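During the reporting period, our protein records have gained a structure token line. One record among many is quoted in full directly below:
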Amino acid sequence: MRNLPACASLCLLGFLLGMPAAAQLPETELASRLSADAAEFLSRMVGPGRSKVFVVVEGRPVQGGAFETTKILVSVVLDARLPDAKVQEVRRLTPDFLRMDPERGDDLAILRAPLVPLWKAAFLDQDGARSALRIGAAVMTGLLFCLTLYLTGIGAMRALAREAQALRYAGAAAPGAFPRAAEEPLLLSGEIPGLAEEAPSGAGPPALGRRFEFLSGKEPAELAPALEAEPAGELALLFAHLAGSRSELAARLFSALPVPKQTSVSEILVKLKAADPERLAALEVRLKAAVEQSVQGSETLGRILSRLPPAQREVLLGELLSRDREGAEAAEASMFTFEGLAGLKPEDLRRLIVSVPFQDWSAALRSAPSELVERILAELPQGARAMVQEALQAAQPRDKVLCARSKILAQADALASEGQIVLQRPGAGPELL
């Protein structure tokens, strides 16, 4: 009985040696390939060393020697210092990238753990590196300052010691006599030394409240109709308030008004002595409601035309141009088409690509210009690129292609409104003087 564990171990070792290598199994090989692609994908999304991925594939052989996948289990470990928004982005994009199907039983588990030491995490992005450099420069400056103070103090102590020794030997002063220190300035009750001087007269007033914040993200031309509908006296209150906190915004809005309206507002503004807070609050409510409920017809038409096929779009623009040239030009100036994505900057295009599921790119790139297709494919990870290239070989329903392109353009508009990317529209650009 004592030799039973040893015999069992030998039998188990012989059984394992007789098994085929696990790497030769189809599910193991597929899991290894998916793990490598997912690791590359996550490294580009969250940064090197800030993620780990483990993929388990379950399947069964079918007729003809093929292999059918029955379940994919994915475990992703993300660095605990990643923001929640980036974690949610990983949770949303990873299933699309690995073609996971919840109905099949596929499952994605995301865990958080400190993968990167704090000192090393500071150098993973440019902002962290700059912060580390600033801290290092501050520490070096502090050390140099302390060293300068130390050397200055040592020099002063030595000079004082030499002077005391000379006085003692020369007998010029009585023992223990030292020069009288300078008298301290006379302070009144409640004063603090060093702060008794008069406060500078140029101190600015306290910052005003952040009223009318909704005006900051709008173009002056978009706000002009709502401003023109207000009486000149109400606009004088608005510009008096904005000039104290956001003078640049006040100037931009004032320049968008017609000259007669500018003159009327100026006449009242010159004589304005005080602002009524209740009138100012009522004006803010009215302007906010007018801005939120306003409809820009040319921009709405531009968004609709941007999502149509190029041939149909050209026909409609031609018909509209023959009937209303000004309206057609306004709609065309506000358009940003799917083909216009080829003109995005590389960093803007990469930011848009990772924010859209790869399945939408597979449908949207069908029959798209070759220049745009090549740019998109060049930015995709290897696994996603193969998936999109394979999907491009098959015909897609027209409605599916248009729907995918509409989703991508909507995401591009959302990123542009947040200031993350820049969309160059035909009529966009600042006014040139």
